[in-house]
Specification:
single chain; alpha/beta; UDP-galactose 4-epimerase, domain 1; 7-stranded parallel beta sheet; 3-stranded mixed beta sheet; 10 helices; about 20% strand
Length: about 325
Amino acid sequence: MPKHASSDRGPLRRVLITGGAGFIGSHLAASHVAAGDEVTILDDLSTGRRENVPEGARLVVADLRDAEAVCALVAEVRPEVVSHQAAQASVSVSLREPVRDAEINVIGGLHLLHACRDVGTVDVFVFASTGGAIYGEVPEGRLARVGDERHPDSPYAVHKAAFEDALRILGHGAVGRALVLRYANVYGPRQRGDGEAGVVAIFRDALEAGRPLKLFARAKPGDGGCIRDYVHVADVVRAHRSAVTDPSWPELVNVSTGIGTSTEELLHAIERVVGRKAAITQGPPRPGDLERSVLEPGPGFQPSVSLGEGLQQLA
């Protein structure tokens, strides 16, 4: 389909979003639809939901591990923008099932990149990587920067790093611009509270339902829990839109706030929003959890939604 100009939105583009029925991907899909783009979503619905798909976007249910299905869809859509959000996103699952994690987070991504190379229409390929896991432990008083050495210490982080490297090596021959966004801990509307990731949604849902909560330790029970960098999904969407539309956007960017919040501090903030106190039990550290992960935003990105403002939106 030929491009055509729009008076205030720029040219309509063909956009393919993997994982577009999920939490972050569905917000990105809605943003592209609102901009007038032609949006196709590839999602296996293992964690995504049909009801998250915005009106105006097309959903194709397929698995990234199915190379034939991925290649056929990319050949049909001929996307100009690819946003690769789909992932196996649980650190603990990656520890239990490292082969499955690699099949999804590395091999599935390579299927997609191979298909993009073959079709030859992709101007921008954006990969959703992990800032929260890829740097390893970030000492107190420091922020992880994009130039820092990576220290992945879980199969999930190792495989995210592996696809970053694959995109750097293979992407320049397959797509126009190959970009990596390293997300901190993203939260916001449509985040699921029924798994082990997404602590904001887990805490909110438990408080609203009156369920007790276990607070996992950073190093020993009662220490307040791990310290994380929480970034609102609206800021992730803004970063993504800038990456897609700004030709000077850097190839590697931390999408983060640079502010560390302990699990206990986060829980108390959500308690104030919900208006309920949680019944808390103290637990040991969880395997694979980093004690502290806080990232310097950018380059070229600064957050606009504070944690307090973002949590109020969930009330």
